[in-house]
Amino acid sequence: MANSDKAALYRQWVELLGWLEQEAAVRGLSTEKVADFPDYIYRMERPYDLPTTVMSVSVGRGGQALLVAAVSPRHVDLGGVSLRLMGGSKHWHLHAGEGGLLEGKRPFTRERLGALLDGALQGRSTLAV
Amino acid sequence: MRRPTGGPVKVTVDGIPLDLPAGTSGIDAVFAAGRDVPYFCAHSYLSPVGACRMCLVEAGTPRKGKDGELEKDENGEVKIFYFPKPMASCTMQATEGMHIKTAATSEVVAKSQAGMMEFTLINHPLDCPTCDKGGACELQDRAFEYGYGASRFGFDRRHADKHYPLSDFVILDQERCIHCKRCVRYFEEVPGQEVLDFIERGGHTFIDTQEGGLPTGFSGNITDICPVGALLDNVARFRGRNWEYDHTPTTCTLCPVGCAITVDARNGRLERIVGRENRDVNEMWICDAGRFGHSFASEGRLTRPLIREDGKLREADWDEAMAAMNRGLAGVHPSHLGLFVAADSTLEEGVALERLAAQLGTGNVDHWPRYAAQLTAPTATLTDVAQADAVVVIGADLGEEAPVVELRILEALRGGILPTEFDHGTAIADLRLTERPARTPEKLAVIGRESGLWRHAGIRAASNGHNAVARLLRPDTDELRAALALLEGAKQPVVILGADVLGSGTEALAAQVSELASRTGAKVLAIPAGANSAGLAALGLLPRDGAAGYAGLGDAPAAFLSRLDPVGQGLGLPRGFTVVHDTHLTETAKRADVVLPAVTNYEKRGTTVNLEGRFLALEQAALEAGEGADLIRTLTALAGALGVRPGVRGLKSAQAALHERLGVRVDGLPERGALNLNVTRAAAPAGVPYTPQLWKPRMRPVTREGETWVERTRQLVEEKWALPMYVPQPVQPGGDD
Ligand code: SF4
Ligand code: SF4
Ligand code: FES
């Protein structure tokens, strides 16, 4: 990935984190940081230039994660953002685009995220407990 | 040593010839040869499944030709036909004439193992420095021993949920899981609970529960067997690194099973308890109370003596406490002094008490809790329980009384297979253990109230305890008739008696139990009320000469109480001068005249006798106890205050006295303890009813305030995602190292 793509990826990741936080709150879901970048934690004196330390977050209810969102660490080949519906066997791979994250060729919008969260909630409520 | 029957087979490992019992797995053949094979998914007490593919070896067997003779090579040697691919040695049976090559002699094996190691590490998160398992991690050790030490994998790793509490006690990190399935198999095979499983498939597989959490009972064992830091003890979370702990192998005395445990202490605090193997007692499993219920040992301890002055307790030193006891007991005739101790006191402490009571001439000695009945039927061992072909449990709630007995019963229901023992220890993979084992609930009858065991039993009879044995002898319902028939039809039946029977035991009970045993040939396991009630009863620490004992405490003109809380129990205080020896300021201690700090059983050297009559050793963990003293030293102080020179003054003299008294040597007991079924246990009316309760209120883990490991992303958003420590710096010339 070119460096400019990387910069875009992490900018768009931070934007996505903001959406996640807000869209989750609207639906009464909690957002929790899951992990920081190992490359931030263990970098010692090496320079660090990403706009966030957060590598993955979860959106959940009652302490259980419904959706985990993560971005690849900066040294990774073929990096991108992944969204996974925990237990739903659904996985979305996003990559950086010029105007924002792309799901393949399709722009990944805030509305699209909202639809995924609604779907997650719906799936959750139809699960036999 | 228990070895399976069946003729030996000849196996050669790396050129080393061996004679092994038939049925031995390849992995055990390798270890029997003194060689090594890495493994993750195999576990001695679980079914081998060949999931991790770490234990690969090259294996081959001779083959018979058309003439019925073994085929030879051109040199006339028996020819070994190697399997075309490396074999998982944990699921492969070592057969007659088999040759096995490990990494020590086979390039192919070395490369396969390194390759598997690389696979296993591909998706592993980079958590080692913050992972509580670090330093005691099977993945780290095997990677160090068998891996290439370099990564070729440049892609992103698996992301999943981390630090996710499965219960108050167990915390899960889904990213660290290597999918060995030990935890899933454990729950299904050992406590018989299907509460944990893999969700999704492929690289997305993760561990979770649909039940909304893990049931408390035996959940903590998965934190011992998880080979990585995926499942961790939440009570011991972030307390210390494995190599920083002082490890003390000792015996749990929360209940009369007496499981083998290791107490991990650091800076004088008890931080963690893990299970330890004792094939004869707990195999490798301990209950959640025994594992997680240790906070009291390091929280709110009494560390100094207290004496009452102007109606209030004030801190003092031992000399002042002795002076106060001397003054307070001055008007009391020593033979009127009541001496009452907790039933988990050690044998050594017990014999010191017995000697002192004799010197003082008091018969008012007692331990609590205990039951009145004295049974003479042959005692079943825990191994007898595991191998029984019929088990009838009467009036027991094993979850409260002796949890691990429940596991041994469940072991009987899945065939009573005890893994083979080799010189290298318990078989790493016993091929007779199978995944999702068939169970035989019809071998188990439960008579009494509903309990955790109820749902595993083929025969269930509701009954209240006091006449349950009598009713079983003359059954008046179909269920009881079935239970009696079960015992009568069995070759190795075992009857287990619990609190409801023993606590309300009438004088007739012993006779009824004997009748049942002789009629059915059953051995009997009566669960004592206290962890060492059996040992203290063997010493006869019971009221004599018409003394009222602990039940008559309120009438004692003066009393000494060690780790008993009659006020908290609703029994009241002795009417005269009261000395309390305890680890915490209990309700009784608050009202005592003198309070002496005690030590917990984690800090004692000594001996306990478990429910089957096995003498087990306690070792002393390095915990901060202030001026706390065990009962032997405390009785020496009491004797001093009374102007008596005690007969037992330390551990050595206590052990000598025990040898004299019971004919048993308790110094240098073997690892697994020594079974002694010949010691007679005295009995006397108990008077105080006892309801077994495993988790005492004090044992609940303390939630440490202000310790939250979950950071909200909201904070990060509000702080504009600013890096807490980022200061742009020029790159150092010459690189950074
Ligand atoms: S959580 Fe641990 S024990 Fe369970 S499958 Fe994963 S690695 Fe194995
Ligand atoms: S079963 Fe009893 S001895 Fe074993 S760990 Fe639990 S409380 Fe301790
Ligand atoms: S395949 Fe895991 S130990 Fe053999």
UniProtKB/TrEMBL annotation, chain A:
<dbReference type="InterPro" id="IPR036524">
    <property type="entry name" value="Frataxin/CyaY_sf"/>
</dbReference>
<protein>
    <submittedName>
        <fullName>NADH dehydrogenase</fullName>
    </submittedName>
</protein>
<dbReference type="InterPro" id="IPR021093">
    <property type="entry name" value="NADH_quinone_OxRdtase_su15"/>
</dbReference>
<dbReference type="GO" id="GO:0016226">
    <property type="term" value="P:iron-sulfur cluster assembly"/>
</dbReference>
<dbReference type="GO" id="GO:0008199">
    <property type="term" value="F:ferric iron binding"/>
</dbReference>
<dbReference type="InterPro" id="IPR038458">
    <property type="entry name" value="NADH_quinone_OxRdtase_su15_sf"/>
</dbReference>
<dbReference type="Pfam" id="PF11497">
    <property type="entry name" value="NADH_Oxid_Nqo15"/>
</dbReference>
